[in-house]
Design a protein that fits this description.
This protein is an alpha+beta fold and about 525 residues long. The chain has helices spanning about 20, 45-60, 90-100, 100-125, 140-155, 190-200, 250-255, 315-325, 370-385, 395, 405-425; strands at about 5, 10-15, 35-45, 65, 80-85, 130-140, 160-165, 175-185, 205, 210-215, 220-225, 230-240, 255-265, 275-280, 285-290, 295-305, 330-345, 350-355, 355-365, 440-445, 450-455, 460-465, 475-480, 485, 490-495, 500. The strands form five sheets. Strands 5, 6, 7, 8, 13, 14, 15, 16 and 17 form a nine-stranded mixed beta sheet that branches. Strands 3, 4, 9, 10, 11, 12, 18 and 19 form an eight-stranded mixed beta sheet that branches. The chain is globular, with a radius of gyration of 22 Å.
């Protein structure tokens, strides 16, 4: 059990850690120390990268996969792990923006991903807590009842099996609920650990703590690492959540990052089955998870743009208060958070990074639904590499631009970035470090320069330059995860300045007191 500290009337685990990673022992892999060659180089050890490595290695391709940290420690390791085609109130919107054909293709793609996961589990005899569940979108807000009715009409147009009801199995006030039948949930790390083992058996070389910083072309493309190694290959897959290589595609201007939170609790009552998410804000996502001798309730939500808004620990507190109010909580066992990227039109970017670079592929912008979107991304990119047809290629192609809604979202996202860029530069800071309590942080000025200061439990000070190394925005302190987060493009750094999440490629410079 983790350490504890008191917050208001509740107790939260002292450190954020997902149940998924704490409940499985994963293999470790060395860092890359020399330049290598392969047929395919994959950057990112989450569900997309590992699934692609598995599929390609089954076709006898030589694959090298690298991760900047440990594999399965990014968004995949911090998911709620719902395997569903119900991605919020999306199908009525997709029919309106893209037409019936593309909306139908999106449903087919996510359903194919769900079927692939189940088939793979059966083929490999996995024990990964896979359970078929119905998925619910519910509301207790009159203004969303009509939206659920419109979404039901979209389901009917797309031949999606569904039911609209005014009750759900959970004891929550509900005015309407839309049910998508025969969806599923699982333990993502148990599932992917088996795929990693299959990859190793198929000859895949995996390297951890190996950061990709760029790509170059000679006769063949090559991944360049921070420590100076090259991975020369025929094709490259960027599956690193945020693309490590941009090639003037401006992904940072075409997506926005959001953080969301989960608390895992035990309850006096038995979980009634199903997976749930509400339609209104703040978001509340609910599902169960297995725990030896005890069932966990995973309560998620509290979405906000990275680096913006109130103190992040308050989001955890809000989820605890909600869980305690409704679900007879006995104990709060885990807490964690995740970061997700949403594209201009809410469809992921999957395919060649630009129209002219057909040997470099990207998979990003999964909008909190990475289990299905990440899986179908691996299948689509595998088909690109093997020169096989795939009916979903045009739907997800990264070079697309829809006038509506992409243009409006582009303006909105980048106006928000500009606002925070200016705000951070003008922000007045005059906090006294001497008054700073242990396990707290502040922003002050040292020698005239904006400086982030964290005082750890031993009262040691860790000081960093707060200017994000991506594009110069000023980072803000994330109290819930003890990180420095950029409100412009979502880069995240540890309290010592090390990179946790891109698009930044360089750590925050350290500061010293003179």
């Amino acid at each position: 059990m983790k350490g504890w500290f008191n917050l208001t009337d509740f107790q939260l685990p002292q450190f954020p850690e997902p149940y998924w990673r704490d409940s499985v022992e994963l293999p470790s892999f060395p860092a890359l120390t020399e330049s290598v060659k392969a047929d395919v180089g994959i950057v990112g050890g989450g569900i997309t990268g590992i699934t692609a490595a598995y599929l390609l290695s089954k076709q006898n391709l030589d694959v090298v996969l690298i991760d900047a940290s440990d594999i399965l420690n990014g968004t995949t390791g911090h998911t709620t792990a719902k395997i569903t085609a119900q991605h919020g109130l999306i199908y009525d919107e997709f029919i309106s923006h893209f037409g019936m054909e593309k909306a139908s293709l999106y449903y087919e793609a996510t359903s194919e991903a769900k079927d692939f996961i189940k088939q793979t589990i059966d083929e490999l005899g996995m024990d990964c807590d896979f359970k078929e569940q119905d998925a619910y979108i519910y509301t207790n807000d009159d203004s969303y009842v009509t939206q659920l009715e419109n979404e039901k009409k979209a389901y009917d147009q797309l031949n999606i099996e569904s039911t609209l009801r005014d009750k759900i199995p959970l004891d929550l006030p509900v005015k309407s609920a839309l049910i998508m039948k025969n969806q599923a949930q699982f333990h993502p790390i148990k599932y992917l650990k088996v795929l990693v083992e299959e990859c190793i058996n198929n000859g895949v070389r995996i390297y951890e703590n190996t950061t990709a910083i760029d790509m170059e072309y000679n006769k063949e493309p090559a991944i360049l690492t921070r420590d100076g190694q090259r991975i020369t290959c025929n094709q490259i897959i960027s599956a690193s959540h945020f693309p490590f290589y941009d090639k003037q595609s401006f992904y940072f201007a075409r997506m926005y990052p959001e953080r969301s939170y989960v608390v895992a609790v035990t309850s006096e009552q038995k979980y009634p089955g199903g997976m749930y998410i509400n339609a209104e804000s703040p978001t509340r996502s609910i599902r169960s998870a297995g725990n030896p001798g005890e069932e966990l309730w995973l309560i998620g939500g509290e979405n906000h743009k990275t680096g913006q808004g109130k103190s992040t620990i308050e989001h955890y507190e809000a989820l605890q208060a909600y869980a305690t109010k409704h679900f007879h909580v006995r104990d709060i066992v885990y807490r964690w958070s995740a970061q997700d990227l949403t594209t201009l039109d809410k469809l992921p970017y999957i395919g060649p990074i630009t129209n002219s670079e057909e040997s470099v592929f990207v998979a990003t912008g999964f909008r909190k639904w990475g289990m299905t979107n990440g899986t179908i991304a691996a299948k689509i990119i595998t088909d690109y590499i093997l020169n096989r047809e795939n009916k979903y290629k045009d739907l997800y192609v990264p070079s697309r631009f829809q006038a509506d809604p992409s243009l409006k979202e582009f303006v909105k996202i980048n106006a928000d970035v500009a606002k925070h860029m200016v705000k951070g530069k003008l922000e007045y800071t005059d906090n006294n470090i001497e008054k700073l309590k242990a396990d707290n942080a502040t922003i002050t000025r040292i020698n005239g320069k904006r400086t982030g200061v964290y005082k750890d439990k031993e009262k040691k000070l860790h000081m960093v330059d707060t200017t994000c190394t991506h594009m110069g925005c000023e980072v803000e302190w994330n109290s819930g995860d003890r990180t420095w987060d950029c409100p412009c493009h979502g880069s995240r750094f540890s309290y010592t300045g090390d990179i946790i999440e891109g698009p930044a490629k360089k750590p925050l410079p350290k500061r010293e007191m003179n």
